[in-house]
Amino acid sequence: MAPPTRSTRIQRSIPLFSAQGAKKTKSPDKYIVRAFFFDIIKEMERPSEHIEIENIVEQERDPMLTHLAEYEKLFLGARSVQQALARTLAERGEEIRDLQKELGDFEFVHPQAIAEARRGLRAGADERDRLENDAEAATSDMVRIAKTGARWEERYSQISGLPDGKFVFAYFLGEKLRPGPAHSIEDFPFAPQ
Amino acid sequence: MKTNELEKLEELLFRIKAADERFRAKSQALSEDLKSKIGVLTTAEQALGRAMSALEQQASKRFTRDLKK
Questions:
Q1: pLDDT, tens only, A10-41
Q2: Which residue of A64, A110, A138 is in closest CB contact with B34?
Q3: Cα–Cα distance for residue pair A64/A162, rounded to 1 Å
Q4: Do A92 and B5 count as a contact with CB atoms less than 8 A apart?
Q5: What is the rounded distance in angstroms from the CA atom of residue B28 to the CA atom of residue B67?
Q6: What is the pTM of this model?
Q7: Which one, of A72, A86, A88, lies nearest residue A171 by Cα?
C-alpha cells in the first residue's frame, strides 16, 4: 500500500530588508531570497511531499534578480511535481509486483479469472512504463533548464557581484539531476540553519 | 471452490482494479502538470535569455563608458 502523501503550501513574503542581515551584507534582501529557496529545497527533501510555492518574491529591487527568482520558483515547482511523479511510478511498480504475488496464491483455484487479472496487471505495468518514459523525457528537459539557469545565474553573478547567484541550480545539477559530487544542503553558505 | 477463497479472490480482483484506476488518475494528472510546467519554464527560459542579453549589453556599455572617463 502506498504511503499517504501530503501537500505543503509555501507562501511567504520576502521582506525588503532584514535588520540582522543588513549588518552583514550590502544587499540583504537578495540573500533572504536565496535562503528562502534553500528552505524550499529542504522541504522537498522530505518524502511524500508535494510542494506548492506561492509569492516567493513580492518585493525585489533588482528586476533581473526578480526574473531569476521567478525562473527558480518555476523550476522548483516543476521539480516538486517531477518528484511526486517519480514516487508514484515507483510505488506503482511495487504495487504491481505485490499484486502479482498475491494472484499466485489463487493460480490453481480459478485459472480463468487469474489469467484475466494478469492481463489487466500487464496492461497496468505497460501504462506505468509508458509514463516512466515520459518522466525520463521530462527529466532531460529539467536538466537542460537547470543548466540554462546555472549559466544565467553565473553570468548574472559576474555582472552583479552576487557570490551566491548560481547555487540553487548548481545544487540540482550536482546532486539531484545527474551523477556528480555530492553536496549537503548545509554546505551552501546562505542555506538557512 | 470454497466460498471463502472465492471471496478472497473477488476482493483481490477488486483491489487490482481500484489500484489501477487510482494510479491512472494520479499519474496522468501529475504527468500533465509536469508537461505544462516544463512548457512554462521553456517560455521563461527564452524571456530570461533576452533579459540577460540586454543586461549584459548595458553592463558592457557602462564598462566602455567608465574606461573613457
A1: 554 444 333 333 334 445 555 555 556 666 66
A2: A138
A3: 12
A4: no
A5: 57
A6: 0.69
A7: A72
